[in-house]
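Deviations from the work plan: none for this task. Representative record:
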Amino acid sequence: MDGHTRPLSVDEALRCVLEQTAAAPAEALPLASALGLTLAEDVVSDVDSPPYDKAMMDGYAVRGADLLDGRGDLEVVQEITAGRVPTLPVGPGQAARIMTGAPLPDGADAVVMVERTRLLEDGRVRVEGSPTRAGQHILKRGAELRAGETVLTAGVRLRPQDVGLLAAVGRDPVAAVPPPHVSLLATGDELVEPGVRPAAGQIRNSNGPMLLAQTRRGGGVPRYLGIAADHEDSLRPLIEQGLRTPVLLLSGGVSAGKLDLVPGVLAGLGVRTHFHKVHMKPGKPLFFGSVRTAGGTTLVFGLPGNPVSSFVCFELFVRPALRRLRGLADAGPPVRRAALAEDFGHASDRPTYHPALLEEADGWKVRPVPWFGSPDLRGLGRANALAVLPPGDGGFRAGQVLSVIPLEEG
Amino acid sequence: MDGHTRPLSVDEALRCVLEQTAAAPAEALPLASALGLTLAEDVVSDVDSPPYDKAMMDGYAVRGADLLDGRGDLEVVQEITAGRVPTLPVGPGQAARIMTGAPLPDGADAVVMVERTRLLEDGRVRVEGSPTRAGQHILKRGAELRAGETVLTAGVRLRPQDVGLLAAVGRDPVAAVPPPHVSLLATGDELVEPGVRPAAGQIRNSNGPMLLAQTRRGGGVPRYLGIAADHEDSLRPLIEQGLRTPVLLLSGGVSAGKLDLVPGVLAGLGVRTHFHKVHMKPGKPLFFGSVRTAGGTTLVFGLPGNPVSSFVCFELFVRPALRRLRGLADAGPPVRRAALAEDFGHASDRPTYHPALLEEADGWKVRPVPWFGSPDLRGLGRANALAVLPPGDGGFRAGQVLSVIPLEEG
């Protein structure tokens, strides 16, 4: 895989990235932090739910046979609130006051809503209205879940309703794949942090905050290491630090020029190069390597310094790697087919990932937005998708169907 | 709006919630935490970007006129790296070694890639290949952004690419609407926390972790207050604590029964009831109130104790309120039209929000999943959407078009 002279195709490059990427080991994690993580165990219920025949209304637990014509006067033998255990059975001609969620007493087989009753002066309760059938306003023990039943299987990405189910069956903590930590290091003597006003020759580091946001959206936990200057003494300790997390993202410093020291420093730290060029636009000078560390394998992505190149390389390669690390079966990126909304002139010798608007209007339509290339973050800002334009010297016709990668919303 | 005797329709109830809900005041927030928040200012660039004519390749800055036939030998007068300012102009017959991202020196109007050059023994550089046109491999000052230009407008929900743009124009901190804090309080003597094995008569609190996850998905910052017992001494201090955040979610304790103390405690703390019933299934006994506090207004939702009722009420009412608090123009919930994939028998006197599978296959199709009602969290677990079934005593025919609320993925 050391073919870093010939540029790989996007598919080859993604395959190479995923070959180096395995799901992180599962851990026992607090349920409160499990949202969005991949479940790493088949989950079996340890309880019947509900654990008893449960009243679904406030009212009276009764024997349906006593109320075949819908009315009757019954002796009230006890009161049962949620969280209490009934102490007496309900015999013929008897009833128990009962609250929503409370266990039904033995003998009773139905609940009459309190709205259909009134207390008599002698302490009995009068039931009126339509006939009462057995099972009315009762949830039978085990109707939701039975002990021993599998309620969720390993591999599921946990949604709020799944978290609710895990809570119901006592899975706190729960075995899940933890989110990957991702180190971010910007490189370049010309960079200053966004809060600083650039002096002559300087520009602000826009990739750092953008990659941090993309990492969050991709389910990673970002750790920003700052800006490294263009010399080995600055780069080496920061890269060493970044290699301690499962993923290190470097921004800038990986094209072929004289000051692009990064590949040399990486090699010196044992990082094996898998590829260093991808046949795509923007994003051609993407570097990908890996190194075995004490904690496992660290993936190293050297992202191009131009912001749209960096953004696109993240979406095409880093996000799928994060999904794989998170234990998700489908690494992505997501692709949808959409018809060009209008003619579009474009020529390139490489497949182009062009900022575009994807919209659903009588099927899916895609419309490339004005964009002048890899430095043009504003063009990307007007887009909600990347249209994949095959290489060629001509243009594209309205109605032609393209692959489109939808971008996530805010 | 104190009409809590007649149940409101879902639309009336949502309108009532949103009438009580205003966007939180903007704050100056660190850019690193701005992802997903609503921008609260129009953002104008304070710089030209790039701030100078910038080299887009490693190579030599040249005068195109010297290389009209594509070749020539040029004197190298300086080396310019990114972050440095050129010290000399490039005269006729001269060139400057230049790195990607560095400022073009005066006099030069193009860059020749290093791959097209070689250094001669006398120190000059030989350029070979195709003709060099002015502007080649140069990004002109201000091509991306001009100082004074508006790059983003208030109201935008910030995506990673917007965060990149904000960084480029120095907006750190940035004026944005902070995420709303949401207190969660479960109520009920029968509840135990998920990590505990329930004794007789007890059940686990599944709504707490589920609402916490829904709050996160809805862009809120949850704060779990625990489980309150069914008496005023337990409820009152916890509710008082919860009223200190802009939103308080109560789970359970709001139906009409004897032990449902919550509405009384809320009234005692000055909470005004807006409604207490909604004409829907599940979720009928939803309580909504509000109170003015030192910090502004606190919205109080009393969610039904049955897990699917609680889930659905959150999606229909709480999530839109959170979106409005977050400053988003479209409160939702999102609704899509989809055709029933198959006949479906269902009768109810209320509109039913039925767990369903929504899929795109020759248009949008919806398929209700097996579900036996408000306690059935497993039924919800098989769904990715809620199908809105109008009231009626009959059934629904394959092909009939329904409103469907898609649920977010993990």
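The mean pLDDT of chain B is 92.
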